[in-house]
Structures are given as C-alpha cells and as structure tokens.
Predict the structure.
Amino acid sequence: MQQPFKIPADEIARRIKGIQKEMQAKDIAAALIVQRVDLFYFSGTAQNGNLYIPAEGEPLLLIRKYMPRALGESSVRRIIEIKSVKDLPLRISDVYGKLPGSIGFEFDVMPVREFNFYRQLFPDTDCVDASPLIHKVRMIKSDWEIRQMEKTAELSAETFEYIRNHIRPGYTEMELSGMFEAFARKRGHGAQLRVRDYQTEGYPWHVLSGKSGGMVGVLDSPASGEGTSAAFPCGAGAKKIESNEPVMIDVGWVFNGYHADETRMFAIGKMPEKAMRASEAVIEIHNAVLDKAKPGVSLDELVQFAVGKAETLGYAEQFLGPPGYKVTFIGHGIGVELIETPIIAAGKKDRLEAGMTFALEPKMVFENEFSAGVESVFQVTETGARLISRVPVEIFIC
Amino acid sequence: MQQPFKIPADEIARRIKGIQKEMQAKDIAAALIVQRVDLFYFSGTAQNGNLYIPAEGEPLLLIRKYMPRALGESSVRRIIEIKSVKDLPLRISDVYGKLPGSIGFEFDVMPVREFNFYRQLFPDTDCVDASPLIHKVRMIKSDWEIRQMEKTAELSAETFEYIRNHIRPGYTEMELSGMFEAFARKRGHGAQLRVRDYQTEGYPWHVLSGKSGGMVGVLDSPASGEGTSAAFPCGAGAKKIESNEPVMIDVGWVFNGYHADETRMFAIGKMPEKAMRASEAVIEIHNAVLDKAKPGVSLDELVQFAVGKAETLGYAEQFLGPPGYKVTFIGHGIGVELIETPIIAAGKKDRLEAGMTFALEPKMVFENEFSAGVESVFQVTETGARLISRVPVEIFIC
C-alpha cells in the first residue's frame, strides 16, 4: 500500500522554527499557508487545509478534508477539523485569544480573487507577502532532505539506464517518453512534477531529438522542442528518433515529494562530430562550474564563469540559446518543487550557502539543428559542490 | 512532425467578438489575456505573450517568445514582438492612440504579486476581473470545437479498449496507468491535462482498485484513492490490482488542447455482486440524467434529480461520497481545460444551454470498500444531451 513515508517531527519543528525566525525579523505576526506544496513542507500533509503559523508558539493545522489522513501524516500537535475556510478567523481567535495584526500569504501563487476572499475574512489585519520567507526557509536543505533527494536520484539513474537500453530508431519522442515514464512509475515515480509558477508547466517528457533540439519556443529554457501541438508547443513531439543524431533527454523525477532533474545526451549508433564536440563542451562547463560552486560564490559569478568558459571553448553563439533568445540562467534550486529559489541567473548577487541544492543545466542550441546539454543535481557543502545525481556524467552512445 | 493543427481564423474571430460583446455589456474597455490556455483559446497560440482585446476593434497580440511560431499559429492580424512585459503600455498606446480606462485581468488565476506588477504598469487604469467573461464565452462550444472533442473522444475510447485488453492481476495501479498512458501518447495524447485552479492537479492516472476506491481524501471528488505518498495523496498508488475486485478507472485525455474525461468500472474475472449492483445503479443514474439534460433545465435540478434517483435505488448513503464527505456536484464543464464552468452543482441556478459540454460523473463510495462510478462527456443540443464519448457505457469484465 502507500509507501511508509512521513516527514519526521523534528524536521517539521525545524522548518516552523525557521520561518518563525524570518517572521520575527520582518515583524509579521502570523503566516497562513494555503498552497499544497508549502502545506506539505511545513506540516507533513497535503490534505485540504491551512496551516496557521504564529511568529511565536505552536502552529495550528486546520483541515477541511480529510482529517483522518492529516492526523496520520502530520506531526503538528494542534490539528482541528473545520467545515469551511470561513471558520478560520473564529477558530484562530479561539486558540490564540485574538487575531494577529498582520498575516503573511503566498502572494507568488495565490490568485487575486482568492486573496480578496481571505482579506475580507480578516478585515482588520494587515495582509502581506510571506512567499520570500517561505522560499528562504525551503532553500536550505537538511541532511534528511538530502537523503530524500538521494533516493530520488537513485531511481532517476535507473531510468537513464532504462533509456540507454531501450532507445531505438523509429520511436517518436513522445512514445519513448511514455515508455520511460511507465518504467519510472513502476519504480515509484509520483508522475506529477510540482512547479510553482502557474505559467510554467513541469513535465518529465523533454525529449528533443535532432532538429527538435534546435527549436526555440515558449519555454524559459534554451530549447523548447516541438511539443504535441500549438496547444502545448514544447517538450517531446511526434518526430521519430533516428540513428546517428543527437538526442537530448531531460528527465524529471519525483519520489515522496522530492525532485530530481537531469539531462543527458544520447545517440543511437554514432553521435555526429559537431554534436559530440558540443556535448563534450557542455560537460566541461558543467564540471568546471561544479568545481567553482563553493559557499560565498555569487550566483552571478557562476553564470559569468560558465559564459566565459563557453566563449573560450568557441560556443559563445550557441550557449544558453541562439542569439536574441538566450536565457540568463544556468541552473535552479530544486527540492519539493522542480524549480525553487535561488535561480543561478545573471545579475543575481546572492551567494551560495551550504545546504542549497541545485539542478545545474548548461545547454547549447544550434538553431534548426540540435541541442547539446547536460544537467545534474548537486548540493552545496562547506567544502564545495557534491553531486546528488547518480547518472554517469557522460554521453550515452547506444 | 507537429500535427498540422491550427485554430481556424473564423473561430478566433467568433471568440473575440464573443468576449467583446460581454465587455461592452459590462463596460470594460479592454481585456489583457495572460494565462496560457486563455491565450491559446483567444489567439490560437500558446507562446509567451499577451493578447490585448479592446471592447471594439482589432485585438493586438504581443509576443515575447517566440515570434516565428506565434506568427504561424495565430490568425490574429496584428502581432508584434516585445522585449518585456514592461513595454505593454507604450506599445498599446502606440497602436490604439491611448490607454484604456479599464482593463480586465484573469483574477481567478493571476497571483497577487503578478497582478501588482501589472497594476503599476497601468497606474491610471481601473483593473477589474475579466475571468467571468472569459468563462462565459468559453462555455459555449462551436461545431468546430465539438469536432475537436470528438477526435479526443475517439482516441480515449481506444485507450479504454487498450485497458480492457491489458489489465492483469498483479499490476500496481500506478504501473497500469503508466502502461495506458504510454499507449495513449503513442496515439497522440498531449500528456499534460490543463486544470485552471492552482490547488487542483489534473492527472490521467486515477486508477482506484478495490479498497483504494473506498478512500476519502484531499480531492474534491467522491473518492481520492491512495496516491503515491503523503506528498501526492490521491490517484493511483502502489496497491496491486487483484482479480474479482471492482476497479474504477478515470482516464483524462487531451488532444490538440481539447480534453476528454471518462470513467468506467473494470473487473478481472468477476465483479463482486455488491459492486456490480452499484455499478449498474450509477449507469442508470448517468443515463437518466442524460435523458433530462435539455436546454432550460437548471444545474441544481440535474443534481437533485440524480440524488433522488440514487435514493430511489437505495444508494443515498454512498452517492457522491460517504456521509460527511459528499461532494455537491455530479459533473463539470470541459473543453480546453479539464474542468470548466459551469459545474453541475447543488444550488446552481444557471440553466443548460445548447453548446455547453460536460463531463457527467455520478460516483458512489463504499467507505473502506470500493468506488463505483461512470463518467462520459456530452454536449447539450437544442433537443437534448448528445454523447461525445465513444466508450461503451457498460461494465468491463476482463
């Protein structure tokens, strides 16, 4: 039956303490967690409910549906059942004796209409943005979280091995994606990748073969691929994978809520010389960035270093996308969502800290020809980057 | 390569005219479409950009990325490239000679933070909610749209046939879902179902076998299933499908942006008597509601009729969920999103109109035992309901 997975009580306590510290520093009296992934992160359950976190003291989990499962999943001590969100003010003032002077909401995901509804529930309360605080806490992973990500990485490595053994000329990109996802689900893949931004659709089928890799498009990524139609114009499409062409496969994995995001180059038969050199170059950039990724280095420095390296290797034109359509980042945070803060983007002055986890993805686009890219998940430790990924950092000739 | 699919120009013109009529009635000077599905619906492209629709006259499509694909996909006549969203006010006043007095935004999906950004771009403009207008236009499907949904329904029917032929004892729920999704992608499934509400995750793997069907949970649906972990506690899980148990399989399909959403009961070997009777009862309710679904009938009347029918058949306790956890709806609109307005929910006084399309899903939950349900897609015509679904409305004994 359901995997015996539960976020440990001390882990939940650490997270609550973390956000309370941020709330105290910003003088926010309470946070009301609404979004499902944040709720899972701070309470251990993703049932339908809200988590009320005062700046000091015990949090209160208010569950609409379904109380028995929430009780089994969450280690929050005070859990009560409510019939409607409208009950929140009364239940909160019941427990805490009063309503807070200010409440932080997730302004980065909560729609305007829903916010207006919450605001009228708390007419005398100052409603502010709690999302920066949430991201700041989530950004630093505990050892327990690193272990969860390592489990996901093991399963992802098996999936790459499966692809290596099963890729054949004649499969369409979408067909191959269906095959490796079916394999992955058998091994525990949760099927749904979590992405926070409502305009970004996370999906595990970014299979770009040959010319598909040379297609720019909607994605905030160097290559969009063809997709299945104008309705979903990115990722795998109906193109058949051929022998002797570069195939870039970006696999997203989620296990017990923790993500992996990895990319490797494949070729059936022989990788064309130009693509082989480019694939080797992105691996060289990837490894050089890992060597440099130590606490204290700024995100911008990492990007500039990667761009400089690409220039040195003769790939200034293709690196991060074709001229005019380059993306500004080489990696992104990862954890209970596929894309988390911080983004390793140009201009970002924030510095690496121990406990951060990233998907590092230097990619090149040869417009109308192909993509060459590599992507691994790593953690920042006191002494430098440590790969969480278990997939060999190499080019897969099948 | 990409399926030669394009929303016809007269279809786009009809939609623009439709929302302009609503805007004029509500005295909204312009709408700014931001969300990707709405953009696809009103412009034909889902590239990264915005569609500006004045209450009268030609719309303006402003594309950030990627112009060549937007030009190929959209029949909007005025399409311009912009570097940043910040360029919107200047480009709009360039084209129309002035900025509008009011702009409608998608308040039901646009996060507070993004809205605040747009609002400061238009400091002298009244920002209002355009989402009810958008839904009102999208609610009524054209003949062209019905044909798209029929194509999707054909492919979905093949998928049910695949399941019927491949379901075996010993597969886990998630394993079976991977198998039929792999088959479906080969036939053109777009893999990503579109759901509007950020708290609702649409997925095509709602496989609930035996006791999994008896599990209440987070979903606003009679049965949640077990899911893969506390992080994603609904849908298919790790339970193995057994012979002689009721298996409820709810398949979501999307093809060229148009959805299907269908449920059938399966059993390997023999359906237990109690589940067989319940499965026959939901089909009886399903067919009776279809007979009653004519223009002019209110949504509430349909629900009350279905509930009355369930009572008559002796299933008051199980219908729409166990006591205390019943949902209030028996169906929902469907089209370019899996769940659209209107919802066939208790208390809704709106009336059926020709051109509406619904997924009708009467379901019962026998808590801790199993679910029995059926779901089909139908359109409302002048003379009554017409099934779009092509899957036989029967119980699949395999």
In short: The CA atoms of residues 195 and 338 of chain B lie 6 Å apart. Chain B is about 35% helix and 20% strand.
